[in-house]
Amino acid sequence: MAVYQGARPRSILLAPKGRSVDAPALPRRRVKAAGATRARQRSNHSSFLIGGIVLAFLLAFFSLAQTVAVSATSYDQARLDVDGERLLSRLRDVQSDLNRLGREPAIRKQAIDLGLGQLGDPVIVPAR
C-alpha cells in the first residue's frame, strides 16, 4: 500500500456504500479553483495598476505645480523689472528738476511768478 503525502487513514467501519472494505475511498481534498487564483492575481495586478495610475497622476500634478510656480515667479520678475525701470526714470526726472530748480536764480524767478516781491531794508524797532 502506498502512502501519499497528505492522505489520511480511513476507518474500515466507516467505508462508504458501494465500496469494498479493501479499497477505502479517501475524501476529496478541496482544491482551489484555477479561476480563484487568477482572480486573486488580477486583483493584485489591478491594485498595482491603480497604484501606478495614482503615482503617475501625483507626479504630473507635482510637475504642473512646479511649472505654475515658475511661471508666476517669471511674471513677478518681469513686473518688478518694469517697476524698477519706471522708478529709475522718475528718479532721473526728480534729479533733473532739483538741479534746474535748486539754484538761486530759479528760486527767485518762481517767487516773482507767484507774486512775491523783493524784501526791502529791515525795519529796526528800538527796545524800550
Overview features:
rod-shaped; 0% strand; single chain
Care to describe what's here?
The protein has 128 residues and is mainly alpha-helical. It has a domain at 35-113. 61% of the residues lie in helices and 0% in strands. The chain has helices at residues 34-101, 104-113. The longest helix is centred in the middle third of the chain and has 68 residues, at 34-101. The radius of gyration is 51 Å and the shape is rod-shaped. The model has no long low-confidence stretch (mean pLDDT 79).
β content, as a range?
under 5%
Question: What kind of assembly state do the chains in view correspond to?
Answer: single chain
What sort of overall outline do the alpha carbons produce when their principal axes are compared?
rod-shaped
Fraction of residues in helix: 55-70%
Determine the mean pLDDT. 79
Whole-Å distance between the termini?
Answer: 153 Å
Major sheet details:
none
